[in-house]
Amino acid sequence: MPAEEDLVSERSAWLDVGGRLRVGLGRRAVLSAGLGLSVAAALRGSVPSVVAQATQTPGGAGPGSGGAPIGGAVASPPGTPTAIPAATPAATPMGISISAATPEAERPRRGGTARVVRPGSDVTNFNPAAFAQDTQIPLSYLEPLLRPDPATLEPRPWLATRWEWQDDGLRLLLTLRDGVVWHDGTPFTAADAAFSHTVYQQDRDSAVSGLFELVDNVEAAADDTLSVRFRERDGNWLFNVASLPIFSSRQYRDAWEGLPASERTLSGFDWSTSSPVGTGPWEVTDWQQTSVEFARFNRYWGAETWLDQLTVEVRPGHAELVTPSRPSEPAIVWPIRPHDLASLATASGSARAVPAASVMFAAFNFANPNQPSGSVWTDQRVRRAASLAIDRERYAREVFAGFMQWDAAGTVAQPWAHDAKLTTPISDPAAAALLLADAGWVDYNGDGVLEDVNGAPLQLSVILRADSRPELAAVLARVARDLAGVGMASTIEALSDDDFEERWIRRRDYDLIAYAYDLLPGFTDFDLYGSAWDVRANPAGWNPGGYANADADAAIDEFLAAITIERQAAALRRLQRAVDDDLFGLWLGFPDDLVLIGDGIEGFHPDMAWQTARTWDLWRS
Asked: Does 116 map to a domain?
């Protein structure tokens, strides 16, 4: 069998005749599908098999999350849950109070209800593969095989207690937990997991079918064993697929198999005659167009919920989202924006700033047909000057009320892989001006805009999608002012989806392209950095600016061929150094999430994969 390092050279063979890369779901596909953080990824094994074993059973205030990570990449000892990150109190001048996420003075007690409020307009399609509901709903009554660690996002045992790679990473065996039953009382088996993955792969409405590109088959090897066979190693499967919620084969198989293969979907299932069932701590009791009601499931395999009932409600607009709930119905509202804090004057509760797997950046375009030289970024000094000219710390203060990791470099915000040693520079306009002068940019005509030796102005075109999170436009406006301060003029265009696609895929006539998005637990941005994914040469790629760096490509190859999480993390640290040394774009930081906790609700613990996932911990004071 080949050693792990020998597999690096094999990645060149992953391009088929049409030039489409067969490495699973990259970031471009994730963005197109609009996926959230409810999906995870995998590794590859060579002889001997790599094994992860759960060593802790459920207990305490909620289901257990113990288990040994593959490769020992987590700092906590095997079998010990990683500490959940503390939530920082959000300073607010009025309305909601300042509150730290410290242990509650009272002991948790059972009883009562709570409400989680999320953005959305309709919750009536319970098809898990379609992602038509807000993720809070399936996370409340369904469970995954592996759950992302709340602090690191590494895969942890859940419905599966153990996993083992065999056949040089082409077969994965997962051992399932004993004693788990569905809400209808039937036992959970590997047949349910195999059926769920078949639906995710084949459902006409599936938003995650691309995650199964390298899967050959999924089958129940025994009642307690799931077997997954791959055509090629898949370095993201445990992170992004094993964390998909599992649903009941008994409930859905007849309806599924009764449809023609090309028309199969669970979206048309009649839930009014067969209420959705799961294995989770909450069972569905009722639903309307904009809300779902849950009650405690008394036969849950883990510790019972403290609350008797839970409601998940969606509201159609952001203004409606942050409208305070009635005092008799305390709520958790997420997400809220920093600018919402002052408007919550009549709210009662506390805002918590919690770490999030979110990134914000603007990528350089190295081939703009409207630039006389092809690109203003070819000279590394110009890129460094732009990075030094901008004041990220001020943006964090003015736009995010300080609630972001403003000096974080790169786009790898997942804690298991992020290189915290890399940071962005402190703003230094004087140093930026010197670099620009050294690169030959001078304000010859005195208009405040630098020109090159041929008189071409240093004029930048910046594009973003109009539906990006609003803070991105606010940050870019400040970036433009700071760049103007060193003689770099810019125009910012917020474009519709169609116009944005036209500009970055076909016309490519921009200098900076800005993004803000949430990350999956596993790394999917290989198609952002890798030269093989340059959209100019590969129609299935992303890499919008034609970035090419040999060290970055080698690090991506190493990541895609890695067996262990430790090796994946090492490869990603190498990638982060490469794209920061040979600067890929302007890093704009990792924003925090803000969660509003209503008065009377205790036990909130943040979870980077989904901040309000851990509703089993909630209780009423």
From this structure: no
CA nearest to 42, candidates 555, 518, 608, 522: 522
User: How far are the Cα atoms of 24, 45, 77, 157 from residue 563, in angstroms, in the given order?
Assistant: 16, 5, 20, 18
Residue 147 lies in a domain: yes
Residues 176 and 193 in one domain: yes
Q: What backbone torsions phi and psi does residue 475 show, to the nearest 5 degrees?
A: -65, -45
For residue 344, give the nearest of 602, 613, 115, 597 by alpha carbon: 597
Residue 535 within any structural domain of the chain: yes
pTM attached to this predicted model: 0.85
Q: Given 3-state DSSP classes, what are the helix, strand and coil percentages for the chain, each rounded to the nearest 5?
A: 25, 25, 50
Indicate if 345 and 413 belong to the same structural domain.
Answer: no
- Based on its alpha-carbon atoms, the radius of gyration of the chain, rounded to whole angstroms, reads 25
Tokens of 553: 């490509």
Interatomic CA distance for residues 233 and 572, integer angstroms? 17
Stretch among 256-260, 489-493, 538-542 having the lowest mean pLDDT: 538-542
Which residue range forms the structural domain that includes residue 604? 35-76+85-103+126-276+337-353+594-612
Please write down the HEC assignment for all residues of 123-179.
CCCCCHHHCCCCCHHHHHHCEECEEECCCCCCEEECCEEEEEEEHHHCEEEEEECCC
- Answer left, alpha or beta for residue 42, where phi above 0 means left and psi between -120 and 50 means alpha: beta
Domain shared by 383 and 348, yes or no: no
Residues 70 and 202 in one domain: yes
Residues 269, 365 share a domain: no
Q: Is the pLDDT of residue 130 over 80?
A: yes
pLDDT at position 425 over 60: yes
Give the integer Cα–Cα distance in Å for 366 and 508: 10
